[in-house]
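Data deposition worksheet. Section B asks for the primary sequence of the deposited chain exactly as it was used as input, without tags or linkers unless they were present during the calculation. Section C holds the resulting structure in token form. Section D is free text for depositor observations; keep each observation to a single sentence. Incomplete worksheets are returned to the depositor.
Section A, Depositor: J.P.
Section B:
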Amino acid sequence: MALLSPCYWPEVRRGSERFARELADGLIARGHRPRLITSHPGRPSVRVEEGLPVTRVWRPPGNRLRRRMYEDHLTHLPFSYAALRAGDDELAHALYPTDALAAGRWGRKTGRPVVFSLMGIPHRRALADRRGRMAIFERAIAEASALVVLTEAAAAACRRWLGADARVIAPGVNLDRFSPGRARSRTPTIVCAAAIERPRKRVGLLIEAFGLVRGERPDARLVLNRPADPAARTPGPGIVYANLDDRDALVEAYRTAWVSALPSLDEAFGLVLAEALACGTPCVGSNLGGIPEVVDRPSIGRLFDGDEPAAVAAALLGALELAEDPATGAACRARAGDFSSDLCTERYIALYRELL
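Section C:
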């Protein structure tokens, strides 16, 4: 099978890219032959990276399209389609709506099945935010043999805004890589691995709430993902930045933190929360989207409503207290077992076999 994603490591190391890697590793371990078709600004290349053949096609500049409010990740599609046609895959699996267009055309030409994994939650505001976005989603879904989403919340949004039924397969967490380690930091530490540059992640709200937390816990620390642009950093007492796009650094941050926080709006799943749970770390997230399906019990974290810093701070303080309970680590780890990479891989293999 061919996996299609517009970006990949080392250029981008976020949820969808980690999902692609984990799924590919699971497929390889079971004797299947996945390959990844992605894009980058440089010269085309084909190489095997940790056992996975990765084809990087050229991504022409898209600044003019972006200025005119067209969808991102359009310029590489002719080259991804050509790379797909050049192979002999039994199935194509797209992880982004625009890549699903290339996969859908390939499916029409070859008569072979196409899976479209929608990694976010569709809603009216986002679908109208870019020129042609609604048409892209409609065509991608129409030409896919199966539409897959990450949570029941995402499936409900697909029915409401797109009129489409979707299967639910939660993304996988590598429980061997993300595992409890040495003792927690001596100081109360909150980690947030979200990208600061993306407004939907609401890291600014978390920073405001952290200021209130420091009123109760003066020694508390907040570890944020280091942005590429130094100007995007918000200085403040107790706030530090780390390269959380690096997997080893991310695991270490989860293991030593007391709490992992994700205050996002419209989060389809919240993979960073599931990864933190696998390290035995309780979580804080907004009571929106798919996050309540991950942090689904008070023994593993706290949820907050609204967008007031005081509500976020209360959830953070509650989770810090939870982290001091000796039973919390085991409860978090047990919940993460429901999202193991093995379980995710087996569900996708079952889907592939059904379609084939």
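Section D:
The CA atoms of residues 254 and 276 lie 5 Å apart.
The two ends are 11 Å apart (CA to CA).
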